[in-house]
Amino acid sequence: MPVGTLASVKGVSQDVLEELGVQILLGNTYHLYLRPGVEQVRKLGGLHRFMAWPRAILTDSGGFQVFSLNDLRKVTEEGVTFRSHLDGSSHFFSPESAMEAQIGLGADIIMAFDECTEHPADAERTRASMELTLRWAERSKRHFEEHKDEVPWRTGQVGTAALGCPGERSSPVGNQEISANQEPAEQSSARQPGAAVSTQALFGIVQGGMDLALRKESAERTIEIGFPGYAIGGLSVGEPRALTREVVESTLEHLPADKPRYLMGVGTPEEIVEYANLGIDMMDCVLPTRAARHGLLFTSEGKISIKQARYAGDKAPLDPNCGCRVCRRYSRAYLRHLYASNEVLAQVLNTVHNLSFYLDTMRAVRHSISLGKETGSSCV
Ligand SMILES: [Zn+2]
Questions:
Q1: How far does the centroid of ligand 1 lie from the alpha carbon of residue 355, in Å?
Q2: pLDDT of 377
Q3: Torsion 367-240-28-280 (CA) sign
């Protein structure tokens, strides 16, 4: 999932994202809550309509961003008080308000409000944080169940046709796009035969730090609460990569394989292949887009820092094995010139290529998985 923090994948328009084959985008609740504000997005028909994106959207709960604020936040049982990074104003997120915000934004998949445990953390602190996330998961689900009909794209239809009118869809077409590969299970289970698919899917988040026993317990107790998909949170927080892999592999054993399993906040092209092969279905990362804006490009021949003078006279395409619109048309020399001259187009083209490279990487993974299934061998 490319990251579209503020209802925009920086530098790339929605029509280009569609052409690249992006099926689902991630939006950040914390940022959208501050600007332009949830109520504004709701009044404009929800995130899909606001940003003219008919495919699927996932929003995070705001928890991770708030926890990244460090000095600007205070955590209690009730929730988190934090100061805006924009103007220092004080705000409060709880499981209930995080659900309210995400229902107001109206993404297809929304996330329970959790506490991302810092690293390193001792055993006592890790358990206390995991227990808090479990209590918050229950509160998130309870609030969601009570208010799930309040999504912007159901407004005016609650209690009437939307509650089961055969063949009618009031939700964005995004659900259809994602369902081709992995349909959020709650939509299946909640759907009556012939009824409309018209609520969001709320995913739970497994925490437990780097402690494998706590991860198992967190997974089991989150499954007990019951969600249509499960995320592994609290990784990529500064721990060594080998440890990330160990925790992912171990946690996956305790998560149902027939529901989407989402690893939050990873990773490099090599890592996303590795985690997909372990059984992860969904990932998000700012890396391809953020790195692109800094001139760091991922290619089939390794990483390229396009700012380097060695590319000044290089007529070759950025990646000879990439078929994206950038590699088909421009030379490394031109991309290097754009970057060195601080042209806006440098950010646009670099981002298009990096996204294309990531999406191609995942297409190749899906292809190899389907071949594995077709030939009857065990899935990778
Ligand atoms: Zn390319």
A1: 9
A2: 46
A3: positive
